[in-house]
Every structure is written in C-alpha cells, then in structure tokens.
Amino acid sequence: MLNITNRAKNVSPSLTLAITAKANKLKESGVDIVSFAAGEPDFNTPEFIVNAAKDALDKGLTKYTPASGIAPLKKAVCAKLKRDNALDYQPEQIVISTGAKQSLFNALQTVCQEGDEVIIISPYWLTYPELIKICGAKPVVVETKAEEGFALNVGLIEKAVTDKTRALILNMPNNPSGTVYGREKIEELAAMLRRHPDVWIVADEIYEALTYDGMEHFSIAQIDDMKDRTILINGLSKSYAMTGWRIGYAASPAYVAKYMGALQSHQTSNPNTIAQYASVTALDEGEAFIKNMRAVFEERRNALWSFLDEVPSIKYVKGNGAFYVMVDISALLGKEYRGETIDSALKFSELLTEHAHVSTIPCECFGINGYIRLTYTLSIDRIREGVERLKRFIEEIK
Ligand SMILES: Cc1ncc(COP(=O)(O)O)c(C=O)c1O
Fold it and tell me: Does domain 63-286 have CATH number 3.40.640.10?
C-alpha cells in the first residue's frame, strides 16, 4: 500500500449515513424496517420548487455560475435573513455552497489552523469533530446534561476557552437532542464571549425552521456585537425538504466571505446551478410549506413522546426543535437480549435492527453514551408501529 496521509486516516466515516444505508439495504431485500434513523424530512420537495428547477433547465441555465453563488440567490438569502431573523446582510457577505456541510467546511478552513482548538457542545453533530480534525485543529468537547434538558452550561464553556481557542460551534436547534437553547441562554453566552474577543462563533442554524411549542428561533448574530464575529450557517436541506439538492449558505463579515468563496472556487466551483435557481423560488415562496411541515413534525413529535411514555425502562429528553428525540437506554446496559450482552447503545441499536427491524442511531457517535436517537420523519402510524416493536424488544431484555 502506498502512503496515506494522517489527515485522511484520522477521519471517521459518517456512522449515521452508514446506518441509514444498512437500513435501506434491509428494506430493499424485502424486510419491513421501521426507520427512525434518517436525518432528513420524509416530505417530497414541493412541486413549485421542482417546477422552478424544470424552468431553469428549459431556459438553459445549466452552465457554471460565480463560484460563491448566483446574485439572485444571494439576494434571496439576504431577504430571508432580514424577514425571518431581522438581520441585515449584503450579497457580498453571502457564500452559497454545496450544502451547509460545505459551508461549515469553508468556515472552519478559513478560521482554524494546525494546533488551534474549536469548542463543540455535546451531544454534537458527528461531522463537527471530523471537520475540525481535517483543519489540523483539535475538537474540545463541553458536555451538557440530560437532566438539564441539554441546556448550555456557559460556565463550563468558559472553562474550556484557552489562548488556542479559535472558534465555538453553536448548533441550534440541536442535532441530536432537538434542544433549542433559547434567547436568554444565548445572551448569557454572548456576555461570556465578550471576555474572549478572539473566538469566532460558527452558528449552525440548519434546523431553524423547525421549532415547536411556540419557541422562536433566536440567532446569536442578532446580538449586535456578536454579528461581526459570527459565521452563520443555514441551508435549504431541512426547511424545504431539499436534502438531495445540496444548497447551503454562510453569512459572515465580507472579508471572511471572500476567503470562503476563494476556497470553494478551487474545491467544487459553484454549487449546482439548477438547484441554485430552484432555491431562489424556495426562499421567496416557501413560507406556507414550512409552516405546514413544522405543524406536521410537531404533531408527530408529540405522538412519539406519548408512545414512548408506554415503554418500560427508558427515559427521553423533551426537545423543542429539529426532528430528533434522544432516548436514554442506560438502564438496559449490562443486561441480555437472547443471550447477548448489551454493553453499549451501539449493541442495543444493532440488536434492535436485527431482531425487531427498527433502525435507530446509537449516540456514541454524537459524543454521549447510553442513548439512541429517534427521528420522527415518518407517519404517526409507522411511529406507533416502531415504538411497539421497541417495547416488545425491551420486554425480552433480562
Ligand atoms: C446539525 C447539522 N448541520 C448541518 C447539516 C448538513 O446539512 P446539508 O444537507 O445542508 O449539508 C446537517 C445534516 O444532517 C446537520 O444535522
């Protein structure tokens, strides 16, 4: 074997994508899997967005665009940030990317280098540590507690700040916990960050549109003196059921956007041209779609909670956003299912898929043990069926 870099070797493949693929394979072979694993809406992309893409094709809009995105889409993003978040950005502050994932990659590559530290809050989205490591930087994990609803602990975050800290990633609503930190916590965090002016804030707001119980999204960039040190990341994947279209964006100070655009210009050039044109329509006309999707997810979340209430030996944490619920299965660790010892959430999840045909994500990959993540991107009937299977599975654990 010829040489492989440490940079490549240090990256762990995405477990969530691997598990989703495994569940899909079982499904294709005819097994009736209830999948609580997928991190994407089950809705189809709405027709008016699909039609906008067809329109772009008919008009021959199939060529390269400026690497950082087309002007009408940057304008639509600025209008969205103004309308929904009361934020003023100019088009030169916006970089359109191939998904929020690329925006995060651009942001971290722009602000971190070898030896730097980046603070992430656990439970965290599994991609963050890998992106940080690719920069040669070190992820520094600050924990939150289930019994506090995974609320931010600002004191602990401050303790983790060193002279090497280059950025803090703030993901709200949170994947995997569904936690929405809320305005007060964000203001408390901002007050702490004022004491550490060299720390960038990378605000991943990809689940912004999905908040429930009347909770309003509040971006840290809405706090005046935080805006100039925030790289705000969002995208179309989750809010408009457009995961496969691969459109995300970053809003930042113009000098940062310039570097991020240059980086992107040598990686992927522009994001998909047709998807960019369709995204203009999504952002301009998608409000009713989002409102409906949010209501459907809230109803399903409430149903999932009520079904989980009937399952013995587990607990779960109530979140106000995204489409995830974290279920605490730690009381079952060390016990046996049909002669096999359940020594981890990963083992629990594997046995559950194999014997009960229910697919979930074990949360070790999100930096926390003893939990599995359930997605409510499936119908209430399927949620009920899945939780009944989970219950029967747990009843067999001795
Ligand atoms: C927290 C978080 N950020 C970003 C992304 C990436 O989204 P995109 O599809 O826009 O790359 C995801 C997708 O699962 C996510 O969960």
Answer: yes
Sign of the dihedral through C-alpha 318, 41, 375, 148: negative
Q: Return the CA Rg of the chain.
A: 21
Q: d(Cα 217, Cα 292) in Å, to the nearest integer?
A: 17
C-alpha 204/C-alpha 128 separation (Å) is: 10
Residues with CB under 6 A from ligand 1: 39, 99-101, 125, 171, 175, 204, 206, 235, 237, 243, 248
Say which CATH class 6-44+289-395 falls into: alpha beta
CA of 172 to the centre of ligand 1 (A): 12
Each domain of the chain, given as residue ranges in start order, spans 6-44+289-395, 63-286
Nearest CA to ligand 1 atom 13: 39
User: Hunting for tokens 């359930």 — which residue is that?
Assistant: 374
Ligand 1 site-directed mutation target among 108, 131, 170, 206, most atoms within 8 Å of CB: 206
396 alpha carbon to ligand 1 midpoint, in Å?
36
Instruction: Give pLDDT tens digits for 145-187.
Output: 999 999 999 999 999 999 999 999 999 999 999 999 999 999 9
- pLDDT tens digit sequence for 189-222: 999 999 999 999 999 999 999 999 999 999 999 9
Please tell me the distance between residue 395's alpha carbon and the centre of ligand 1 in angstroms.
35
